């Protein structure tokens, strides 16, 4: 089903994981996809996987405002006005107080970086009444705290406030804003987290995975493709009434 036919969608963090899966899903659905991330060589791989779909790649460091503005201007210059943005760029991991505290970097990347991208996209949005949407990739850790993850939890929880405020701000011009809060998803970032857990507990990676899944009623990680399917739905006419919402594909790990 080519429900995104000829729509221009910008995906940040498209070099791997959820961002790459979203790019491939939307490309199959007929979108013109603009792929943004820091590592151009990985974006080139994503573009190749998109097959015959029209693709544009651009290096983009979401912590650098000039880089963000240039990337979105390049995307709009090549593919035309933007119909949707999926902000999958993000930074994970723990942080600890002291000289090496990563709190500010996590917040600058996950929260401020997302904000920079959405404001840059606004300047290149397609005109109404075409559907225009922003989808923010947050995390189940926006819903509850984890010791040692103050930066990650704070930045992802703040994305939900951003989603609600921006949804109200943009509703009068017909732009919808929603968030997705994935739980454990089978990505390199998730396995890095499990490796950290294994190291802290003095256990193997497989043991850490088993313990983590005990907190997930469905007993398994999600896949990037499953999250991409939810993004696809949010960008479809079927979700035209949805704005200011946060959806929770987490296997039942959090039920709000």
3D architecture notes:
By secondary structure, the chain is α/β, with parallel strands linked by helices. It has two domains: 8-183 and 223-247, NAD(P)-binding Rossmann-like Domain (Rossmann fold, 3-Layer(aba) Sandwich), CATH 3.40.50; 184-221, no CATH class. Helices cover 44% and strands 13% of the residues. It is built from eight helices and seven strands; from the N terminus they run E-H-E-H-E-H-E-H-E-H-E-H-H-H-E. It has helices spanning 17-28, 40-49, 65-79, 103-122, 150-170, 188-201, 205-213, 224-234, and strands spanning 8-12, 32-37, 55-59, 84-87, 132-137, 175-180, 246-247. The protein has a seven-stranded parallel beta sheet with strand order 3-2-1-4-5-6-7, with helices on both faces. Helix 1 (17-28) packs across helix 8 and helix 3 (65-79) runs parallel beside helix 4. The mean pLDDT is 96.
Q: Tell me what portion of residues adopts beta-strand conformation.
A: 5-15%
What is the helical fraction, as a range of percent? 40-55%
Radius of gyration: 18 Å
Give the termini distance in whole angstroms.
Answer: 32 Å
Number of strands: 7
Short description:
The chain is α/β, with parallel strands linked by helices.
